[in-house]
Amino acid sequence: MPMPHEEMRRLIKRRITGLEGTERVKVLRECLEMLPGYYQGPYGELRKWVLDLINQATLRRTVQHHEPYFIPKEGASQVVLVGPPNAGKSSLLKALTGRQVAVGDYPFTTLRPVAGMVKFGGATVQLVDLPGLLDGAVDGKGGGRSLLGAIRMADAVLFVAPLLSEGMREFHLVYEEVTIEAGIDLKSGLVGTKCDLDGSETVWADLTAAYAGPPDMPAVLCSVARGEGLEEVRELIWRLYGLKRVYCRPKGKPVSPDPVVLSPGGTVRDFVAALNRAWLPAVQGARVSGPSSRFDRQSVGLDHILADGDVVELPVR
């Protein structure tokens, strides 16, 4: 009896999350071989969907090979830092990831994208520092088309604005260039940098009034020079993609330090499949402790939606 086609589709999506290029094509071909030999009905549609994904990944790999600002995705998701020149993006990347990058108090310190990994209790998110965007990027100014292409391929955007009155016009132009001129619509957050400078409070108030707060962008401010607000920036990065870290507690053993990373809406069923899909027929439920449970070790079914930080015990020997 083959796996239900809906579950098989979810499994394939999980297996290719975060994969690009050759690795994505390889996993998709493995999934194609795993499908039952039906070419009509739900499984036929599923087979066509996988073949379309293979074609898209192959075409994207060909285009990316010639893309000067392409950064292969790593980790659970990719978040790009976008802002005007001298906004403090490189300093922020260095502070959050430890990646050694050129940092200077002058425009265009970063000439090519630089990536680092932000760790979240066993899970990682890739943070990419892009060169500063210029007004006219859509028309190719300052390598704008390539930079906008890199932004489109990311999972989320962190707009970085220096809290300087003279920097506000540049930030407004960059924001409009990305969201309006280029029409890029990704999950996004706002970080105000250099909050230690005189007058930053007034600039921040004007900035958040214009851009932040529901239903717009969540916003935090920081000062890399003083080490202030960096933890808030980390949490904002994690929340942007809505991923969840769920931990396994094997029977009679302590909780595993390495989480299973689930997408928004991830259930106990998704958690089991991520560990070992062969367990699914034998697992009818689990015991959950954490934010999604009413009490410790609550018995739940496979459709129970898990939350970030949950601990799951499975009745698997």
Tell me what the structure shows.
By secondary structure, the chain is of the alpha/beta class. It has 9 helices and 11 strands. It has helices spanning 5-16, 21-34, 41-64, 89-97, 144-152, 168-181, 200-211, 230-241, 268-276; strands spanning 78-82, 114-120, 123-129, 156-162, 187-193, 219-221, 244-248, 260-262, 285-289, 298-301, 311-313. The strands form 2 sheets. Strands 2-3-1-4-5-6 form a 6-stranded mixed beta sheet, with helices on both faces. Helix 2 (21-34) runs antiparallel to helix 3. It is globular, with a radius of gyration of 22 Å. 35% of the residues are buried. The model is unreliable at 62-66 and 106-110 (pLDDT under 50).
Largest sheet: 6 strands, mixed
CATH topology type of the largest domain: Rossmann fold
Shape: globular
Name the helicity range. Answer: 25-40%
The CATH C-level class name of the largest domain: Alpha Beta
Low-pLDDT ranges: 62-66, 106-110
Order of neighbouring strands in the sheet with most strands: 2-3-1-4-5-6
Output the radius of gyration.
22 Å
From N to C, what is the helix and strand string?
HHHEHEEHEHEHEHEEHEEE
Number of strands: 11
- Write out the CATH superfamily name of the largest domain: P-loop containing nucleotide triphosphate hydrolases
Structure classification: alpha/beta
What is the number of helices? 9
Strand content: 15-25%
Total domain units: 3
Average per-residue pLDDT, rounded, comes to 82
